[in-house]
């Protein structure tokens, strides 16, 4: 095929996809699915956003019973991908079975309360049905909140009983450690249900208005990865619980616009530089009924970051973070009196990150992580906070602490690094690995490999090199049982859809939970032949390695030129460039004839402290500088159409798209900005101040990151999108851009979503969203773009 014929073929394919999109826009979802293009190998938006899911049978929320003999997981229904059921499977012989059928138990799901809607939004839960569950520590019960009420499944026999049936929602339900009680929050108070007598006891009774008990406040849920506000002691005697007073928080009126009208929500939203809610921590003694207040210090303007109990229940550990987030104290608390003392302190010139790496051990010692060496690593401490030794070390970061086998002294964690090959005859390490206090040891670590992730094993008893548990290549995550003898491994790579299996602690495969094999029976199989494998590479920015990935269209011909869609997030996150299974929406773009490119810029990804802190006090500057570097790299490639490069992103990615479209050095032809934060002083305290300090202390940084003054510099066409009930990046972020563009007579395109919060939910609306994406891209950089017609 000649280059001209190839060009004609790609444009024809792009036009066929667009024609299908525009024609099907007038059809019902069912008719749209049945009226897909005649060529079944071409993936269309109509098939991507239909049932069953193209991802296949993916297990979610997988966890092992405490004894490791049963696996529980959530699975989407085949007839409705947005409803989850609870499944279980024995770790030995036997097939998986449905433990809780959501629609059978609650066939007519009602409307959730505003508090529960907000909580699920914070937890990024978009499905209905069984969306979360928990074990008791004995492994006898599984507790599952379902549509506002609570159900308890007994492991023996599988009987399911309904514990509550009230008009109010019972939220954040838990089984107590020994399985004698169920606790939950109802109407802003904590309630304990005795499973033996089915008798409820109100632990608190004054929760109302602006006072809430046992519930994580907005900031903790949204930004601190803490979604609970109470904690049982292992012996069930004590319950630590927080009290939240929101009277100090500013009321920010927010329009909640739906298809049926609008209402004003008087939302308590703590904006950067403004007051937070006031938090107190108490310990309730279930035996005496007394409540002791925990001494959190004289300064009330702090964050309650983490709360953990020692294994014997004698000590309550509290992580207290300063308002500027440069100090993180570990408090040791006497639960009987609430008296506390600081036993460890972490400090940083930028911010101290919060993790879930704190692990109390049975002998009183504990594990905790630190970035003192510039990399996140695990350390072993005595009960009083005295450092015993490092557990991990090297020029790479620990991603998460996954489990501990206290009998064998093994510590399991995930990380992205590799070992260098030793030259012949060399027996010792040949890389310098720093330790706390300036000590340096020699090791064989090659360094970071950010695009892959594995489960590793280190020693609790001596400092030595970590050894891999899972195979190399691809992306692994793991959930271990309490004893550290087995784990559920979740894996995918470029050729393997997400699959879940049960493994022994040494990595030996035991059985599949969801194999999700890509074969003739897989829903994605008809489209697999046109799936394009990404290529990966790196760029250098100020001595830092940036990783990128690129996917070309089917039938790619390097002798012709293609438009490029740069997908971006760009903000502090786990990074998006991975050697893992690529989502179906990326294939929609390649089928439409676009090269799809993604770069993880500085500030994005679980990397070194220096890499993450590059954006400190200047969000939107180093990230855009790195994206300019990427755009220039793309333009150096002979098969890239220089004048047909677009960017698309949501949330921080929407901010990046706006900033990039107003950066002359990027030279974008168009950009799609979804739910963009456009002025950081409108965003919340914990997130914004972590990276930008306060508007008063960093006025120049806030001004430089404001999108409004940059709008006259637009280099191409803008599509702005936002949910009209967004309670995270509130709609004001977009309306100020709309107003400024209209006041300057600058044309742009707008798509608003009534009733949608910080994301577009449901197949029908997501289908419309992607039809809009493809139409806009085709008109600005695709076959109908002026550059393509010339």
Automatic annotation (TrEMBL):
A Pfam family matched in the record: Peptidase_S9
Domain of life: Bacteria
Domain Peptidase S9 prolyl oligopeptidase catalytic: 585-783
Domain Dipeptidylpeptidase IV N-terminal per the UniProt entry, residue ranges: 145-498
UniProt entry keywords in alphabetical sequence: Hydrolase, Protease, Signal
Protein name: Peptidase S9
Signal peptide per UniProt: 1-35
Keyword Hydrolase: yes
């Amino acid at each position: 095929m000649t280059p001209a014929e190839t060009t004609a073929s790609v444009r024809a394919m792009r036009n066929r996809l667009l024609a299908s999109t525009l024609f099907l826009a007038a059809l019902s979802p069912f008719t749209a699915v049945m009226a897909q293009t005649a060529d079944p190998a071409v993936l269309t938006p109509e098939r991507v956003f239909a049932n069953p899911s193209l991802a296949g049978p993916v297990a979610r929320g997988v966890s092992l019973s405490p004894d490791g003999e049963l696996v529980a997981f959530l699975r989407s229904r085949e007839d409705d991908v947005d409803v989850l059921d609870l499944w279980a499977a024995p770790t030995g012989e036997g097939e998986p079975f449905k433990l809780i059928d959501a629609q059978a138990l609650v066939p007519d799901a009602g409307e959730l309360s505003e508090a529960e809607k907000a909580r699920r939004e914070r937890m990024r839960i978009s499905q209905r049905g069984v969306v979360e569950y928990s074990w008791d520590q004995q492994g006898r019960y599984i507790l599952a909140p379902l549509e506002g009420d609570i159900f308890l499944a007994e492991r023996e026999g599988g009987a399911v009983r309904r514990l509550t049936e009230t008009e109010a929602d019972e939220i954040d339900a838990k089984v107590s450690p020994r399985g004698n009680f169920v606790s939950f929050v109802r109407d802003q108070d904590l309630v304990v249900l005795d499973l033996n007598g089915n008798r409820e006891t109100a632990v608190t009774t004054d929760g109302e208005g602006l006072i809430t008990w046992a519930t994580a406040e907005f900031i903790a849920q949204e930004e601190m990865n803490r979604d609970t506000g109470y904690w049982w002691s292992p012996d069930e005697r004590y319950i630590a619980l927080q009290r939240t007073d929101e009277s100090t928080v500013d009321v920010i009126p927010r329009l909640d616009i739906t298809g049926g009208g609008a209402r004003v929500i008087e939302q308590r939203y703590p904006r950067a530089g403004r007051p937070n809610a006031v938090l107190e921590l108490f310990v309730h003694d279930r035996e005496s009924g007394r409540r002791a207040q925990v001494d959190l210090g004289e300064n009330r303007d702090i964050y309650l970051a983490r709360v953990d109990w020692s294994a014997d229940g004698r000590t309550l550990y509290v992580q207290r973070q300063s308002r500027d987030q440069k100090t993180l104290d570990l408090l040791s608390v006497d639960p009987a009196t609430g008296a506390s003392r600081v036993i460890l302190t972490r400090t940083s010139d930028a911010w101290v990150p919060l993790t879930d790496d704190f692990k109390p051990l049975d002998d009183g010692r504990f594990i905790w992580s630190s970035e003192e060496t510039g990399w996140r690593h695990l350390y072993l401490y005595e009960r009083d906070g005295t450092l015993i030794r490092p557990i991990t070390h090297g020029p790479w970061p620990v991603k998460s602490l996954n489990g501990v086998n206290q009998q064998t002294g093994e510590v399991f964690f995930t990380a992205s690094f590799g070992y260098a090959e030793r030259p012949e005859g060399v027996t010792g390490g040949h890389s310098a690995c720093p330790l706390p206090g300036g000590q340096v040891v020699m090791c064989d670590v090659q360094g970071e490999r950010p695009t892959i992730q594995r489960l590793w094993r280190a020693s609790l008893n001596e400092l030595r090199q970590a050894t891999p548990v899972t195979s190399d290549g691809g992306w692994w995550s793991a959930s271990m049982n309490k004893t550290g003898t087995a784990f559920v491994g979740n894996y995918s790579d470029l050729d393997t859809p997400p699959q879940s299996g049960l493994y022994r602690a040494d990595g030996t495969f035991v059985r599949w939970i969801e194999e999700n094999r890509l074969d003739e029976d897989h829903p994605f199989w008809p489209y697999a032949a046109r799936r394009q494998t990404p290529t990966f590479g790196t760029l250098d920015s100020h001595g830092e390695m940036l990783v990128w990935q690129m996917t070309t269209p089917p039938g790619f011909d390097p002798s012709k030129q293609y438009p490029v869609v740069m997908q971006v997030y760009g903000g502090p996150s786990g990074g998006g460039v991975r050697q893992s299974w690529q989502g179906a929406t990326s294939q929609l773009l390649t089928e439409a004839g676009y090269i799809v490119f993604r770069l993880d810029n500085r500030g994005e990804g679980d990397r070194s402290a220096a890499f993450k802190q590059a954006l400190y006090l200047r969000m939107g500057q180093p990230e855009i500088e790195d994206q300019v570097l990427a755009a220039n790299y793309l333009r150096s490639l002979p098969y890239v159409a220089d004048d047909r490069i677009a960017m698309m992103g949501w949330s921080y990615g929407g901010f990046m798209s706006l900033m990039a479209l107003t950066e002359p050095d990027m030279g974008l032809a168009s950009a799609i900005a979804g739910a963009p934060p456009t002025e950081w002083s409108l965003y919340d305290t914990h997130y914004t101040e972590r990276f930008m300090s306060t508007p008063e202390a960093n006025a120049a940084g806030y001004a430089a990151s404001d999108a409004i003054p940059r709008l006259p510099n637009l280099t191409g066409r803008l599509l702005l999108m936002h949910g009209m009930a967004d309670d995270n990046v509130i709609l004001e972020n977009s309306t100020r851009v709309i107003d400024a563009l209209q006041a300057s007579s600058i044309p742009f395109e707008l798509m608003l979503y009534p009733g949608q919060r910080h994301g577009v939910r449901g197949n029908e609306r997501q289908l419309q969203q992607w039809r809009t994406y493809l139409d806009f891209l085709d008109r600005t950089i695709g076959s109908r773009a002026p550059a393509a017609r010339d």
